[in-house]
């Protein structure tokens, strides 16, 4: 077995494309022979590791594992120059054998650059364009009211309530399904999908991703674990694809389907006269992807927001004072209030900047040899836009580690610093759900601040508990559970919210 592996290493290194004559790779740390940086790249917290490397080697770093090139972009300039300005050569993805094994074969997130990619981007762009999202706003507001009600009744389960908020919205707009009870079958599928996704390892970062041959090995073999796990999730993933789709078909037949992503795509397919298993698989894959890509990202951003409020009570009070002045106490916030609430905007942006839910984003892959600022980037490189480093860039943000929402306000009130770029990715791969996600985050944050007071929990001696920022990394990062107290700010809000929620 060892000889076999060695042979494979040697073959790969031998086939490795050489640097073009005299043009150096971007700088990077010293590598081991044959295996390259395999031993020094951690499997967890890669973003921090890359950020630290950046301080030593600069904005663009070159690494390789077993001869496969990895290029890390640690500044907004580099990410925009390559992933946006040269997007036609930087929008491919690497293979994600783990997720393919689990059954995500028609998911935009993992698609190679090509015809299917274009078809799926179009499906998403039609449904989630900036204006296309406006009709969902009343639903988002309703779910935000349900969210604050749930947060007050079970503050110890806040993470679940954030996930429920994101899930309920996604099931509604994707399948036209309303979740009203806790034993809803859509919820149960969602839960097990989260388990599956968060146990498949970092996307593109498991040994099988780097070394696909491992997928043919039994799962006890070192590094092959994730492949075995993925295979065991296949039936479940198939159910996530097929069950809700069949439900929508039934509703359409009865003439009772609510408008939804799936209903609209079924109708379009029938109008075009192209109904068939191929097209159906594409619609099922796109629909399942909305959940897989959109639920945990949204909910973990809200968990980070909640943590920020606990850590920075003055920011909370300031945002509440602004909302009280503009919205008043007679009604709840609406999306139309957004332009009048500049401090809340800052709070949202600072949450995205400092507590980014997807720090290494999803790696892109380059399609052609390229030269950038005198450095050679070989075709087939894994290109990682490291949001952690981009949002902590000292040339852009003063005291980048400090939570300071007013940094975004114009001078002299603020520091005139730009909103973070990168939390939603770059170029032709930029998150197609970003407008919808942004609306969901805003209305949830506005409703929480208007109606709730989120404060530090107290210990047995009556002292305030100031939680540490401890982050769980995975396909999305989220804060490890932390204690806090959640109450309605006034009894008026308590009764108004209860009344609203009971009417839905
Ligand atoms: C706060 C919430 C969200 C965050 C932080 C987020 C972030 C991201 C990031 C960083 C990427 C990778 C972009 C790149 O490769 O350059 C991405 C891709 C993607 N996101 Fe989101 N996302 C969020 C919500 C959503 C929602 C609600 C949806 C669905 C409506 C969605 C659908 C997708 C899809 C389909 C992709 C893959 C795009 C592609 O590969 O072409 N995301 N997202
Ligand atoms: C992509 O690569 C090809 C081949 O090297 C090159 O001709 C083309 O100009 C590149 N496109 C961009 C946008 O950089």
From TrEMBL:
Signal peptide (residue range): 1-15
Binding-site residues for heme, renumbered to this chain: 431
InterPro entries, per the entry: Cyt_P450, Cyt_P450_CS, Cyt_P450_E_grp-I, Cyt_P450_sf, Cytochrome_P450_fung
Pathway linked to the protein: Secondary metabolite biosynthesis
GO molecular function, one term: oxidoreductase activity, acting on paired donors, with incorporation or reduction of molecular oxygen
Domain of life of the organism encoding this protein: Eukaryota
Family the UniProt entry places it in: Belongs to the cytochrome P450 family.
Protein name: Cytochrome P450
Record organism: Collybia nuda
